[in-house]
Amino acid sequence: DIQMTQSPSSLSASVGDRVTITCRASQDIDTYLNWYQQKPGKAPKVLIYGATSLQSGVPSRFSGSGSGTDFTLTISSLQPEDFATYYCQQSYNIFTFGGGTKVEIK
Amino acid sequence: QIQLQESGPGLVKPSETLSLTCTVSGASIKNYYWSWLRQPPGKGLEVIGYYTGGTHYNPSLKSRVTVSMDTSKNQFSLRLNSVTAADTAVYYCARVWASHSLDPWGQGTLVTVSS
What we know:
The complex is a heterodimer of chains A (106) and B (115).
Chain A lengths: L3 E4 L2 E4 L5 E7 L7 E6 L6 E5 L3 E2 L7 E6 L2 E6 L9 E6 L5 E2 L3 E5 L1
Parallel strand pairs in A: 2-11
Antiparallel strand pairs in A: 1-3, 3-8, 4-5, 4-9, 5-6, 7-8, 9-10, 9-11
Chain B lengths: L2 E5 L3 E2 L5 E8 L7 E7 L6 E6 L3 E3 L7 E6 L4 E6 L8 E8 L5 E4 L3 E5 L2
Parallel strand pairs in B: 2-11
Antiparallel strand pairs in B: 1-3, 3-8, 4-5, 4-9, 5-6, 7-8, 9-10, 9-11
């Protein structure tokens, strides 16, 4: 299995802050990396696919970067509706997810 | 607009078989790929199995899982044998989409394994 390690596991931030979440793969996965947002009691929603492509309808304050083993999700200016848990997922082979990053209000 | 809805028993006894169905509306299941995932209470996401031309299973569950499709009903299904309390989770179905991302998802259904 490809292991996905997310950091940090949680963070506290204020509205307007720039937030960065990282995801590291245990082997090279090219750009087969997707990011999701999950709010309590709801199904996850894809934000970024293919490491850098913004899913239709997702605000442009979300962006993704990286290739190979190291990836980043950036929220350029945190909004109240962005407080949630974020997951990375590799789709290079049998899908696996990172452990999640909970973004909380500071 | 594609919508997915999971259905099945919310309570399964230990050692029995968990069976769920995902009903797809707004698209023919023949035209896309599909997946099953789960999330234990308070924990992260785990893939169970998915179909992308061939069927792929989580190695840790492979001996107990079957994913199948019924094109006549536009449904795909999950069977998980010999369940234990560790299989208690919210179970989701989702379409496999661009770059094998997962979109959209069903709303999820909580399955509890308990006697």
